[in-house]
Amino acid sequence: MQCTIIALIAICCLGTGLSATTTAPIAARPAAPARNFYLDLKSILRNIPHKQIEHLVQAYLLNDAEFQAVIREINALTTYRLRLQLLNQPELRQLLQWLSQQLILSGGSLKVFDDLDLEIKVFNKYPHWAQTVNGITGFEQEFNYIYPLTSIRKLLETNAQESPVFGEFWRRVVALEPAYDRFWATPQATTFVNRLRTLGVDVNGLDYFVRYQLGWRNDTSPSYYDYDYNYGFY
Ligand SMILES: *[C@@H]1O[C@H](CO)[C@@H](O)[C@H](O)[C@H]1NC(C)=O
Q1: N or C: which end of the chain has fewer CB within 10 A?
Q2: Residue 176: burial class (beta carbons within 10 Å; 0-12, 13-18, 19+)
Q3: Would 27 be classed as within a structural domain?
């Protein structure tokens, strides 16, 4: 999901920059703040409520049988192989390679995502956790409540407009959609999705979440989907 997470916009930025220099003497322009891709990305990632997510996952992992079953499924050997298959998609490999280079050029590295790692402890932090979990649906509701999906999408788009490198990043993320569709159409991925469904996961909701966050969809609600339309998981 960390991929989560982007050249028309870059071209527009360059275009407006160029036209500004030709219509006004350079010295007369207010100094534009220099943008740093690594710092921009880092500040977006800081908006992900990491601690809250960590607590939520911990509460459910320790106390909720439905959630535990989903985590076991995610950790099954077949799912591990599926994850390798996903990471091996040429588009995704190219994006990660480009991302790694750009992060190094701006003084960072892919370690910028390490802050999102979850550290799960074995004992409940609060005793009430034992009673407040409510199945996979409860987890999904709480996650959707704490994760700022629309504001993170806005931050991604605003940064893409303000910085050419970020614009290129966003363009590349948006261009991943066909690879994503191709991957989920494979028999192995379909089997996995069906297993998740059997375990009660709202697969359509999850798919909407990914598509909205990564700029492949603009609708504000999954209910807009036409369920007869044979698209992705539908
Ligand atoms: C979403 O909106 C943006 C900006 O308005 C537009 O460039 C993009 O093509 C739209 N994407 C989809 C999938 O409609």
Answers
A1: N
A2: buried
A3: no
- Total count of domains within the chain: 1
Whether 4 is in a domain gets the answer no
**C-alpha–C-alpha distance, residues 37 and 189, integer Å:** 33
Nearest residue (by CA) to ligand 1, atom 5, is 218
In a domain, 15, yes or no: no
> CA-to-CA distance for 80 and 220, rounded, in angstroms?
32
pLDDT in tens, 65-108: 999 999 999 999 999 999 999 999 999 999 999 999 999 999 99
Asked, for residue 30, whether it belongs to a domain, the answer is no
Residue closest by Cα to atom 2 of ligand 1: 218
Q: Is the CB of 218 under 6 A from ligand 1?
A: yes
Separation of 135 CA from ligand 1 center, angstroms?
35
Q: Would the CB of 217 count as within 6 Å of ligand 1?
A: yes
- Quote the domain boundaries for residue 96: 37-226
Distance 129 CA to ligand 1 centre (A): 41
pLDDT digits (tens, 9 = 90+) for 16-25: 333 333 334 4
Dist. CA 216 → ligand 1 center (Å): 8
For ligand 1, whether the C-beta of 211 sits within 6 Å is: no
